[in-house]
Write a structure and sequence with these properties.
3-stranded antiparallel β-sheet; disordered N terminus; alpha+beta; elongated; 8-stranded antiparallel β-sheet; 32% strand
Amino acid sequence: MSSVPDGKKLVRSPSGLRMVPENGAFNSPFALCEPQWVPDKECASCMQCNKKFDFLTRKHHCRRCGRCFCDKCCSSKVALPRMCFVDPVRQCGECSRTSQKEVEFYDRQLKVLMGGGTFIVTLDTSEKSETMTCRLSNNHRYLFFDGDSHFEVELSRISSMQVLTEGSSPEENDIQSYTSLLDSQYISEGGNCRASGMLLHYKRMGSLDPQQLRIEASEDKKTASLWLAAMHKAARLLYEARDQ
């Protein structure tokens, strides 16, 4: 391995070249670990079409799931930014479709999140609100809130998220609820209404008590809605990474 600028290093693994942080503690919360490959001796046939392996039908491992396939069932080479691969890597059909959707998130939604949106922010049960810009940090690890004051929320410490639609409140039934990222397997998208705000529950560093953060769209509601929609997609990836 060789060191490169920006606190990252180039690592060669059996799956290909990866650009990873020098310190593993600074991995993106969206990152996935490389899977353990299913041993060759346990693969007598393709795990998709059941075709027997022989001298003509060779084994290929999917770089995302680690399972063993024939060339026909594992022929796609798709970018896999969640595992920090430098180049597109071989993946099975199911994994390649998933990775292609994630490439769109990295190309579009991440830029929206890092670009930020303007919200009216209320901490805990306080009646005092402040207009702030909310954006995702460049390393994807924090939400930054900037206004007259500044604070940040680490994504790994968010326990649940609720997205409000226009005209809704936390007590109403039409709230679009994104259930706990830590405890639930599913995150509901809800209906087709435009998102207008979000409730976050998280724990501050060194505290066991959950804190509530409410953000509501300010004047630029279109930009805020796009930011909230991108945050929803980010929430799905966060859950998958935590569940790995």
